[in-house]
Amino acid sequence: MRWVRSHRRRCSWLLRGLGALLACSASSAAELPPEDQCPLVTGLPGQPPGQDAAARRLRSGMLLAYEDVLVLRSLLPDEVWQHREQFFHDGMRMLIGPCHRRYPTPSFYREATERFGGVAKLDDQGNLSDYVAGTPFPPDEIDPRAPDAGIRWAWNVEHRFRGAAHEGPFRVVDLPSSKGSIQTFSGNFFFIQTRHRADLPESDYALPDTPDALWIAGGRFKEPFRARHLAWRQVRPEEVSRRYQEPDDTFVYIPTARKSRRSATAWVDGMFMPRYRVSGDQAGAGLFVGNPIGGGRGWRRAQSRIGRLQSRQ
Questions:
Q1: What is the rounded distance in angstroms from the CA atom of residue 2 to the CA atom of residue 178?
Q2: Quick one: which of 61, 113, 163, 186 is 20 to 30 A from 221 by CA?
Q3: How far apart are CA 153 and CA 27, in angstroms?
Q4: Which among 174, 115, 114, 122 is positioned nearest to 151, based on CA atoms?
Q5: Which one, of 195, 192, 155, 98, lies nearest residue 306 by Cα?
Q6: What is the arithmetic mean of pLDDT over 66-81?
Q7: Tell me, what DSSP letter sits at residue 32?
């Protein structure tokens, strides 16, 4: 059941992030925080110690030392703070980057948003239909007091511009919920978006000659040695947008067994990653437990709760 607890933790992080994004709006249309406006914290360097200092804002370019880590307490998930010795160390320097920075989107994505924005529809379960490309719901048309405002923002986040594909190394720190030691895993991953491609209007906004899928992802472990060559592939069917109960096609290659097996955890919202653990059997084979990045039912609960938060604005 470890993956379930991990699933719930990640969903709570998602809810906090989206809730903070939405709760800041008080006008008739949802608004993003101003660019370069960093969060308020207490205990900034230079403030008198041992006094109840007024909250002050972080600022881009500010340099924090290990001794200032307490400043970040309110900004970190409880799980990260609980294991902060794994993330922060003596002698490190932390540079505050741009806050709420507006990253420009390419012209083809903006053109798709102008053409198809507002065409997408929601059913009573929060499923998305008639979406083609670009941002599904124009932000300035979302009423923050509407019951489905949170769901519309959630779909906008899901279909924000992130590029057509990603490939690179990953590093995962596995924090056990009770027993066991902290473990670090590394390897390489890939992600390819095959549908709703705003850059491919000539091929009906889809990657030609690909399966009927929204995206394809996967990867392979390199370290530690006992998990080396553990690999996975995940295909997200296009039907998932219209029926969120539909599972992904996810397979995991187990090196010790020299075969691929369908994942025991088929229902995830985000990118799947297998978790390795020693099985204890005589052959010393590895077992995998689904470890979703995102969450199935939790994502829907997050959407619902965000909508309720917005209705009280």
A1: 10
A2: 163
A3: 16
A4: 122
A5: 155
A6: 86
A7: P
Q: Which residue has the tokens 């906090």?
A: 16
Hey, is 286 helix, strand or coil? strand
Helix or strand holding residue 304 (H, E): helix 296-311
pLDDT of residue 36: 87
Question: Cα-flanking dihedrals φ and ψ of residue 152, to 5°?
Answer: -65, -40
Please, which pLDDT band fits residue 120 given cuts at 50, 70 and 90?
very high
d(CA 71, CA 193): 38
CA count, 13 A, side-chain hemisphere, 99: 17
On the 0-12 / 13-18 / 19+ scale of CB atoms within 10 A, 143 is: middle
What is the sign, positive or negative, of the torsion defined by CA atoms of 129, 130, 136, 138?
Answer: negative
Amino acid letter, residue 178 = S
Please give the average per-residue pLDDT across 277-296, as a whole number: 34
Give me the numbers of helices (H) and strands (E) for the chain, helices first please: 5, 14
Give the torsion sign (CA, 166, 117, 240, 214). Answer: negative
Q: Name, in order, each residue with C-beta under 8 angstroms of 222's C-beta and a sequence gap of 6 or more.
A: 186, 187, 188, 228
Confidence (pLDDT) at 155 = 92
Reduce the DSSP state of residue 263 to 3 states and report it.
Answer: coil
